[in-house]
Amino acid sequence: MRGSSSTPSSSDGTTRSWIIAGAAVAAATAAYAVVSRRRPARFRSRVVGIIPARFASSRFPGKPLVPILGKPMIQRTWERAKLANKLDQLVVATDDKKIAACCSDFGANVIMTSETCRNGTERCTEALQKLTKKFDIVVNIQGDEPLMEPEIIDGVVMALQAAPDAVFSTAVTSLKPEDTSDPNRVKCVVDNHGYAIYFSRGLIPYNKSGKVNPHFPYLLHLGIQSYDTKFLKIYPELPPTPLQLEEDLEQLKVLENGYKMKVIKVDHEAHGVDTPQDVEKMERFMRERNLS
């Protein structure tokens, strides 16, 4: 939450990641400064971070509670998110008592939500309605991204503050060659002004040769996203859209309904945890960089 920034790791790779993430934040800050001269002084100033967490994942039941080097993954995500400077409040939203008990044990604020929430965005919407304070921006912080840099959280907030024509912001990073065919790694394409054009589980763009172009800067979507709260309140009322259903990607419903989504590019090496096999990869990544 609002406070001092975290200290970068001594690892060259992690330090580089934080430096580039910081550059994205700096760019967002500059854009925000320009827009601020034309907007009310407190435009989208009140920000809450919500970590949606459910136990009944189809691919990985109980995922938020899985230990990552001895700590529950949801705890690692919480501790990382608390280092962000732009959050006025941080909560976990869950429909599971085991997750709620775990979060309470390490000091997290928990909001219980319905089991009928179809995705993380709807869970954030319900949690927002149960908060006593009013907020302008909700940051949906994925519980399966335990190494998300706090600078990236701040970056998506400032990107949305600097783009009054957008209702949504998110982040992308470079796609690794080994992930081009992995449907769990969502790809993204953006326009020349930094707005999202499309997201897909398949490789995009897909050239006529049918082969990966080693020189093309393919983009990987990171799960973090922020919303204008006025939009978030109407999001559940929007009917599911064909592309959203086909790709099983909730952000496509935003685009299909004609809303704009701002995207920032960052350097982020660690992947999220989508399957049990990803736990070993995450722990190996952390050991190699001396991340406890």
TrEMBL record:
Keywords: Membrane, Nucleotidyltransferase, Transferase, Transmembrane, Transmembrane helix
Gene Ontology terms for molecular function: 3-deoxy-manno-octulosonate cytidylyltransferase activity
One GO CC annotation: cytosol
Magnesium among keywords: no
InterPro entries: Cytidylyl_trans (IPR003329), KdsB (IPR004528), Nucleotide-diphossugar_trans (IPR029044)
GO biological process: carbohydrate derivative biosynthetic process; small molecule metabolic process
EC number: 2.7.7.38
Primary site of residence: membrane
Main EC class the enzyme belongs to: transferase
Superkingdom per UniProt: Eukaryota
Pathway of action: Nucleotide-sugar biosynthesis; CMP-3-deoxy-D-manno-octulosonate biosynthesis; CMP-3-deoxy-D-manno-octulosonate from 3-deoxy-D-manno-octulosonate and CTP: step 1/1
Pfam families: CTP_transf_3 (PF02348)
Chemical reaction(s) catalysed: 3-deoxy-alpha-D-manno-oct-2-ulosonate + CTP = CMP-3-deoxy-beta-D-manno-octulosonate + diphosphate
Similarity comment: family membership: Belongs to the KdsB family.
Protein name stated in the entry: 3-deoxy-manno-octulosonate cytidylyltransferase
